[in-house]
Design brief:
29% of the residues lie in helices and 29% in strands. The protein is an alpha/beta fold. A 7-stranded mixed sheet has the order 3-2-1-4-5-9-8, sandwiched between helices. A two-stranded antiparallel sheet has the order 6-7.
Length: 218
């Protein structure tokens, strides 16, 4: 798969942020209508994200409330202030610290027991995969754990640069188009890729297009 955006990778990532700021009010209208979503929630509860939890790319707080069932506190980071406003209205600010930051530029100010990210890994360009996981390592305590959920679903209409490209096009309900990154990870391949860079993470498919991963550094 060719690098997302090639020489214009930064421009593509900036456009991705603009898209998620614009889509915030209608984000939940774009949820995938497939089975398997409940399996993700069940897996997260079974994982029990206890202690201090860092949520990367928290979006509108879809997963934040579930994290708070187990966590002592949650730090929720997202590049979109519009998403964070929705998240804070949904879950409140008790035991939650919301941080507005671009994850490709952000650095943690502390370490956490758990790092969680929901439907974010597929938006990390292939050429930034290793550096993103280095960031995750910097966020974790020595015995810290990771949990993530995602999907590899892309429609034919989104594939503006072909199936081998990680760049796709997404549209708002008013038709406005944006280019974003969407890497179609496959669970077994992703597990091997993580193993090669020093992570012991088991990636599990669901009955739908979704998957979840859990583990720690090797």
């Amino acid at each position: 798969m060719k690098p997302a955006g090639g020489e214009s990778s930064k421009e593509l990532l900036d456009e991705q942020v603009v898209y998620y700021r614009a889509v915030a009010p209608e984000y939940e209208k774009h949820f995938l209508p497939f089975s398997g979503g409940s399996e993700l929630s069940e897996a997260l509860d079974a994982f029990r994200p206890t202690g201090s939890v860092l949520e990367l790319a928290c979006g509108p707080g879809t997963w934040t409330a579930q994290l708070l069932r187990h966590a002592v506190d949650v730090t929720a980071v997202d590049a979109s202030p519009e998403m964070l406003a929705i998240a804070s209205a949904r879950v409140g600010v008790e035991r939650v610290r919301f941080v507005t930051a671009d994850l490709f530029r952000w650095q943690p100010d502390r370490r956490y027991d758990v790092v969680f990210f929901g439907f974010w890994l597929s938006h990390v360009p292939p050429e930034r995969f290793a550096s993103f996981w280095s960031l995750v390592a910097d966020c974790l305590k020595p015995d810290g754990r990771v949990f993530f959920v995602d999907d590899g679903y892309r429609t034919a209409d989104e594939l503006i640069e072909g199936e081998r490209s990680a760049t796709i096009e997404r549209r708002l309900t008013d038709g406005t188009a944006y280019r974003i990154v969407k890497v179609p990870h496959r669970p077994a391949d992703l597990e091997r890729q993580l193993d090669r860079i020093g992570w012991r993470i088991k990636v599990h498919p669901t009955s739908g297009p979704f998957f979840w991963g859990a583990g720690s550094r090797a």
